Structure formats: C-alpha cells, structure tokens
Task: structure prediction
Amino acid sequence: MESYKSGGPDLEQGSISNGTVKRCIPFRDALSFGYVAVLHCDLFVNVISTNENEYGIEYQYAFEPPPIVVREYSANFSPTLDDSYAPIEMAWLVRWSINTEKNSSVLITHPLNRFDLPFTTSSGVIDSDSGFLTNVSAAPFYVRKGFSGVIPCGTPMFQVIPFERQAYKHEIRELTQLETYKRKHKWQKYFSGGYKREHHAKKRFT
Result:
C-alpha cells in the first residue's frame, strides 16, 4: 500500500488536503454572483467615539454625487449586529433603480464573502417587478467601531441577486447506500476539482 505524506491527497474527502478557500469554486462564484454595486469614488470615513455609548461619523468623498448619507446620529442600530459596529445607520446612495421582469425580485445584501470590509451592508428583498422607481436608492450599512481611513473607489458596496418568485416545497428523504456511493463517487474519484468537473455550471448576468 502506498502511503502519503502530510499535505498529499486526502483520499477520504476526494480532494487535496492542503487546498485553500481560493480553490473553492462555490466561494469564487459567490464573489461575482448577480450584480455588484461599487463605489464611484474614494470615501474617507472616521468613526468618532465620545464615550462608551456615544459615537459620531465624519466622512468626505472625492467626487460628486455623494455616495453615502447618515440617516441618524443617535442610536439607530440594527438589532442583528453586534457591538463591534458603531450604532449609527448610514446608507449607500445610487442614482438608479432596479426593475425586473414579472414575478421576480432581488436580494440586496452585503458583498458575499467580503469579511475584510470595514462595514456591513444590511440585507433586504425587494419586489422589483412592480415598476417602483425613485431618483435615489439607498442600502443601509454600518461601520465598525474604531475605523478611520479611506474606502477606495471600486470597493463593492452591496450585491444585487435577482430571483424568480415561486412556491417552494421541501422534502426530506434518506438516500440508500447505493445512491450515496454513486453521488460521492461522481466527484470524489478525482484528487481535486471534482465539483468543478461534475457539478459546476456557469452563471451569466448581463
């Protein structure tokens, strides 16, 4: 029997054991899934702490029109975020609206897998097929406490993911041993890249 050193193929999982998340196709797909709204200019943000319970925001942008607005300087704060964020609601401003085909909506959410950003954008689902139009659209976000710096032009602000509205029904069933073996063998027969070869489909948004 041939043995493998640490870092060699992981035969149990059907993949290279020392592979990083950068090789994960689902992770990479999520980064560009749907449409990504990005900053049109550099944005300087400074979170000011006057004491343990009071915060303020200073900001400056490099080019018109303003990319953000501060909605409330008091403790207007999403209950789903922890205390690592300043309790001030801000909003990304864009000069366009979303209009989709009938029976479709969009999910607006924080840029997927961008845990490195100094802010978090709130998620929301909009029924965008009704012809609701405004001159300015806004997506709420919160900045981390202690952040002071420039958010560069081109930074993703939020992601727009369209989907069709339809009724879904789930079912839970137990796979037979043979079904389990066939499904695992389909992609685990490769040392690496099994998902990409056997399951991955290109996503197109134009």
About this structure: Residues 32-166 form a domain with the Deoxyuridine 5'-Triphosphate Nucleotidohydrolase; Chain A fold (CATH 2.70.40). The chain has three helices and 13 strands.
